[in-house]
Design goal:
alpha+beta; Alpha-Beta Plaits; 2 domains; four-stranded antiparallel sheet; 11 helices; 63% helix
Length: 301
C-alpha cells in the first residue's frame, strides 16, 4: 500500500514538472527551432556540409527532395514510431517539435547570406556553434524537438539501450554516406561539426562551470577542515566512507568552492598533507544554503 502511494506521489510530481512554465518552455522551443532552421539552411544546406540527425539525411537527399520535405517525412515516421512503441502520451510531447522544425526549415530555405566557402573550417565552427546553442536551448525546455532524435530516444527508452550508442551508430552511417556523395574531406568537417555541437549543447544545457567540488581523503582531516573554514570561509561536509579493498573506515571532506579559489584550496591541502587523495570535479549548479561560514547540507558529522 505504501509503495502504491509513493508511486502515485511520484507520478504527480512528474506531471507537475511536465506542466510547469509550459507556455514559456514552448516559446523557447519555438525560438530554438527557428534558430536551428535558419542556421541549418545558411551554413549547411548551402555548403553541403554534413551533420548528424535528420538534417544530415536531408542534405544527402536534397537532389531528390527538398530538405524540409525530407525532415517532415522523418518527423511523421518518428511520431508514428513513438505512438506504437510508447503510446499516445509520448506522441503529444513530440508533436509540436515534429511539425515546427520542418515548417521553419521551409520558411527559411530562401534566406541567404554571403558565406566564405573558401574557408569551410570557419563555416563549420560557426555553424556548429550556433546549432549547439539552439540544441541546448531546446534541451533545457525538456520538450521534444521531433525528428530523428525522437526515434532514437524512443528506441532507447523502450529497449533500455544507450542513446549515445544509438546516435553514434546512426550518425556514423549518415557521415559515411555523406562522404561517399560529397567527398571524404566532408567527413573530416562532419567530425568537427558533431563534436562542437555536442560540446556547445552541453555548455548551454549545464552552463559554464563556475565552481569546483573537492573530495578529500587525508590523515590530517582536522587541519584541512580548519584551513578551509577559517582561511577560505567555506563550509565543509564530512562524509563517512570505507576503503573498498582495506574496508577501513575513513572520513571524506567535501567542499564546493568558486573556480577562482581552486589554486588556494589545492595547494593549501597539499601543504598540510602532501599525501592527501584529492578528487576534483566541475560543479555546474549549486543549490542549497549559503556555505560561507555554515555547514553545507549533507551528511554532516
Amino acid at each position: 500500500m505504501l509503495n502504491l502511494k509513493r508511486k502515485i506521489e511520484n507520478r504527480n510530481i512528474l506531471k507537475n514538472i511536465e506542466n510547469k512554465d509550459l507556455l514559456k518552455r514552448y516559446l523557447i522551443l519555438t525560438f530554438s527551432l527557428f534558430l536551428y532552421s535558419l542556421v541549418y539552411n545558411v551554413f549547411f544546406v548551402q555548403t553541403d556540409l554534413i551533420m548528424g540527425g535528420s538534417g544530415g539525411i536531408a542534405i544527402i537527399l536534397k537532389d531528390y527532395l527538398s530538405p524540409s520535405t525530407t525532415i517532415f517525412i522523418i518527423s511523421i515516421i518518428a511520431v508514428i514510431f513513438t505512438y506504437f512503441l510508447l503510446g499516445k502520451r509520448a506522441v503529444i510531447n513530440s508533436i509540436v517539435g515534429s511539425l515546427l522544425f520542418p515548417l521553419f526549415v521551409s520558411l527559411t530555405e530562401n534566406i541567404t547570406f554571403s558565406i566564405p566557402k573558401d574557408d569551410m573550417m570557419l563555416v563549420s565552427i560557426c555553424g556548429a556553434t550556433l546549432i549547439g546553442i539552439a540544441n541546448g536551448l531546446s534541451s533545457k525546455t525538456g520538450l521534444s524537438s521531433g525528428g530523428l532524435d525522437t526515434i532514437v530516444k524512443t528506441i532507447a527508452k523502450k529497449y533500455q539501450k544507450s542513446e549515445g550508442i544509438i546516435f553514434l551508430v546512426i550518425n556514423t552511417i549518415i557521415v559515411i554516406t555523406g562522404g561517399y556523395k560529397f567527398g571524404w574531406r566532408i567527413v573530416l568537417y562532419a567530425l568537427v561539426i558533431i563534436y562542437i555541437i555536442s560540446l556547445v549543447t552541453d555548455k548551454v544545457l549545464l552552463g559554464i562551470s563556475m565552481n569546483k567540488t573537492f573530495f578529500i581523503v587525508t590523515s590530517e582531516i582536522d587541519s584541512v577542515k580548519e584551513y578551509i573554514l577559517n582561511n577560505l570561509s567555506r563550509g565543509v561536509t564530512i562524509l563517512d566512507a570505507h576503503g573498498g579493498f582495506s574496508q577501513k573506515k575513513k572520513k571524506v571532506i567535501m567542499v564546493v568552492i568558486p573556480t577562482s579559489e581552486y589554486f588556494k584550496v589545492k595547494e593549501g591541502i597539499l601543504s598540510i598533507d602532501s599525501d592527501a587523495f584529492i578528487t576534483i570535479t566541475d560543479s555546474y549548479q549549486v543549490f542549497g544554503q549559503d556555505s560561507h561560514r555554515n555547514e553545507q547540507k549533507g551528511s554532516d558529522n
